[in-house]
User: Fold this.
Amino acid sequence: MTKNFPTTLGELKSSGYESRSIKDEMRENLITAIRSGRPLFQGIQGYEHTVLPQLKQAILARHNINFLGLRGQAKTRMARLMVELLDEYIPVVEGSEINDDPLRPISDYAKETIARLGDATPISWLSRSERFFEKLATPDVSVADLIGDIDPIKASQLKVSLSDHRVIHYGMVPRANRCLFVINELPDLQARIQVSLFSILQEGEVQIRGFKLQLPIDIAFVFTANPEDYTNRGSIVTPLKDRIGSQIVTHYPLDLQIAKAITEQEAKKPEGVQITVLEPARDIIEAISFQARKSEYVDAKSGVSARLSISAFEHMLSHAEYRLIENGQTSGVIRVSDIMAVVPAITGKVELVYEGENEGPLFVAEHLIDLAVRQVFETFFPKIEKLEKKGVATPYDELYTWFYENEAVELHDYADEVYYRELLDQIKPLADIVNKYVTDADKELSYFLKELLLFGLVGSQKLTKKRFNQTTTINDLYSSYFSDMG
Assistant:
């Protein structure tokens, strides 16, 4: 029982409480929040000028809503955050299975209780956290699951016939009366199940078996759907789609800054060690997802979830954490070689087309990392293609010569900081290039950029790399070519 709240129907009437539908409730609370400047849908990044204004308009219009978008576009999260627009508590007839409004009862149980007890009818209070229902649509969902069915056990216990209304077992939808009900992946519902939602969305009424029930269910429906499902697994039947007031199309982050903000917000950080993540490292992680979304090897219709970036970021941190633990250190800086270790975060997050399947998920993951590294590399240093078109000497020529005249460089995944820096310092042209093009780089950024230079030139096919026993060997093109011939 909620403290100082009315406990009987009589007390509720005396308090001046007025009933309102859930959609009116959400609409009025939204208006109040907007006028007061209270932030809404916190944690949703990148939708401030696209999706969220449309969502607010749909709520003001009292619409049922369908979020249409690829996986990993925060559709379900937005639906869950809509709960914050509900009243903190609402009164219900105590014992009601379908949250009957004491002033507007709809079930036979509530009507009979109020007729029998009058103003002494006991009232309980339902919190907003209890007013959220969520169901993942799968092919095995039945009408009985969602709407309800006849329960012969009830009939036996009550010793009544199956035609008595008391033998009805309510499904999830009637039990969500006066609540927010989310159905994820709506096209996965069989067509006949979708049809069972018609009368609820249109008339607010429930039909169970042969019972002619007059239950004006009061529900705010939110559906989610993936465009891929319209061809691969099913579709939203046209009459149902027509009854959904607003269809809002979601999207992936439009730029790296928004993507980085989402990853920073969602990624889990290691404990017990202090890891500095430089901005270029964050850029590379996000660039992997951007490259995947336009890759010839990845199925664009399936989408590339923001969870890829989040998982990759966590893998990068874990690789660095492992290195620090191995070397008995408690703090360190992310390296480009830590980013090279995020392959497991990619292979399970992308759906490959025929060409990608032929190359294999490992190749595709490494290819995407190389492209991302090259993309960020070109934000700091001159693009090689432009220099070659002009037919002039490049700032990388001395570096190529160094590799031609020296042995291959071996970057160990778990090398300590002293070895790592000494290895990069011995490649003299690296410092000259970094100092020329990034004049304000501090010591940490300088070493990261030296390593970025190496991997960027590998991605530009000016140097070669090979992996063996947790070691990356970087060499010049010609030595690798003659070595392969030998």
